[in-house]
Write a structure and sequence with these properties.
The protein is an alpha/beta fold. The protein contains twelve helices and eleven strands. The protein binds zinc ion (ZN).
């Protein structure tokens, strides 16, 4: 089903298409430059040049490893919600809060009508795509997660804020598709925060994507899967990307009970571990996935963005993933 959609979009991907979730580590020179930029010690243009240099490095590395669907590596982003909130109108910057372990961020505050300011990610997407003949994913943070990770001082309730954001995310999506993006990943790690809100998270996704032709992946790494499955399948997208490197067996048992109806990106690398997985280990995870879903509905990727790993760990993990995929392809004939 989705294979056909991919073909219609002009994408001929191999069995077990490979990709990564979005972020890659920033090289030291870029970390230093970003710190300097906050003190106005270098210009925006200088920082931009270094962000491009780092982006190009990651594109070349993904090509060298033969990853099928590339990402720009998010070298220009800090936090995934703040990045959008700081560009959308209607937000102001809040105080530092802690969330998800040791992650600190300025929790944005919705203080007025949220407003798309014009293309946010499109220039980066277009430039990155110009560097490679492989497809580059468009990358957006989903309306539910932007709402959940922000304070709302403007809309009457969470649903109203979420749907308003969905209308603005849709404008960014339209701009991305107009620029030529065919595969778009929408990050929704907050999806299971309040399972009772899943229906309006689904409604928001309809608002964002209905009638806009692309292959959609929703990445949902912090999701407490059992609380929102099978309702999660109501999301109007093609592929669900779930962090299952640890809990593959449990999840796959769930699928046996309530059949999984979409393509699945099987997060086979643990991005929170320094340890580089062996090819056999990754191969085993792919085999388990293929035991429950038809092989032609399975994509293979890490279980989240690799930004907290080192450059060398990222390279090692991806190399193991690609070797395992090559072996799985051979085995499947
Ligand atoms: Zn993630």
């Amino acid at each position: 089903m989705s294979r056909e959609k991919l073909r219609k979009l002009g994408l001929d991907l191999p069995l077990f298409p490979t990709s990564t979730v979005g972020s890659f580590p920033k090289p030291d020179y870029l970390v230093e430059a970003r710190a300097k930029a906050t003190r106005n010690a270098i210009t925006r243009a200088e920082l931009d040049g270094l962000e491009r240099r780092a982006t190009e490095f990651w594109i070349r590395l993904q090509e060298e490893l033969e990853v099928d669907v590339l990402v720009d590596g998010e070298q220009y982003r800090g936090d995934m919600v703040a990045y959008f909130a700081e560009t959308l109108g209607g937000f102001s910057r809040g105080g530092l809060v802690r969330s998800y372990g040791n992650r600190y961020y300025h929790k944005p505050v919705i203080t007025g009508e949220v407003r798309w300011p014009g293309p946010v990610t499109v220039d980066w997407w277009r430039w990155t795509q110009s560097l490679t003949s492989r497809p580059v994913k468009g990358m957006l943070t989903g309306p539910y997660t932007i709402m959940d990770w922000s304070f709302n001082d403007h809309y009457p309730d969470r649903k109203a804020a979420c749907l308003a954001l969905a209308r603005e995310v849709r404008k960014e999506l339209e701009a991305l598709l107009e620029a030529g993006a065919k595969i778009v990943q929408i990050d929704e790690p907050a999806l299971s925060v309040r399972p009772e809100e899943l229906p309006f998270a689904v409604e928001a996704m309809h608002t964002a994507v209905d009638g806009l032709s692309a292959y959609y992946i929703v990445h949902a790494c912090f999701v407490a899967f059992d609380t929102i499955y099978p309702g999660l399948l109501d999301l109007p997208v093609d592929n669900l990307d779930l962090a299952i490197s640890h809990s593959a067996l449990d999840l796959l048992a769930t699928f046996e009970k309530d059949p999984f109806t979409k393509d699945l990106s099987l997060g086979v690398l643990d991005v929170h571990s320094h340890v580089v997985e062996s090819v056999d280990e990754v191969r085993g995870r792919i085999r388990r996935g293929a035991g429950v879903l038809p092989a032609d509905r399975i994509w293979v990727d890490p279980d989240c963005g690799l930004k907290t790993r080192t450059v060398e760990e990222s390279r090692g993990k991806l190399a193991a993933m690609m070797a395992a995929v090559r072996s799985a392809r051979t085995e499947a004939g």
